């Protein structure tokens, strides 16, 4: 089927903010005396604190509410400095001119999505799916299936742009084509995607057909 909808992940695809998530997570654990190991940091990437806290709780004993409060305090200070990746504005404008439906999916709260949209004047998306909309988050396919239902399109008519292995898995599990960009993870960890690029400017028109 012809692609009708292009779905963007937010952090690590549009906004160079995945580092904010990771750095604030590391600092919040340090504040309670926990030094995260490299494998713990990989768990943080692409996940909401609710999800990575539940995974790290199996390894560390910590007060989740206390750590979350510290994390969000650090996070907002870093998030307000985050920039869009090169090529974002040009790609969104091009896709809109070509009459694609555009969707934004994020594992973070709606307030974060709206903050990005307002800050960069990105009132271009036909729908937004956020943390609050999904009972089961990535790598479950729910967030992407919700987009398809909202926009009344088939999953096979959608292409997802992702930056993380769990995001790619979610997109493919939803029955959608997936383009992975190596902003956060190396291409070796994104092999499940249909296409892998290192810059949004390298998306080919034929991939959206």
Protein architecture, described:
With 209 residues, this protein is an alpha/beta fold. 40% of the residues lie in helices and 12% in strands. It has helices at 18-30, 38-44, 49-56, 64-79, 88-97, 110-120, 142-151, 165-173, and strands at 5-9, 101-105, 127-129, 158-162, 177-181, 195-197. Strands 3-2-1-4-5-6 form a six-stranded parallel sheet, with helices on both faces. Helix 6 (110-120) links the parallel strand 2 and strand 3. Helix 1 crosses helix 4 (64-79). The longest helix has 16 residues, at 64-79. The mean pLDDT is 95.
Feature tags:
alpha/beta, globular, DNA polymerase, domain 1, 209 residues, 12% strand, Rossmann fold, six-stranded parallel beta sheet
Outline the secondary-structure elements.
Elements (H helix, E strand, L loop, with lengths): L4 E5 L8 H13 L7 H7 L4 H8 L7 H16 L8 H10 L3 E5 L4 H11 L6 E3 L12 H10 L6 E5 L2 H9 L3 E5 L13 E3 L12
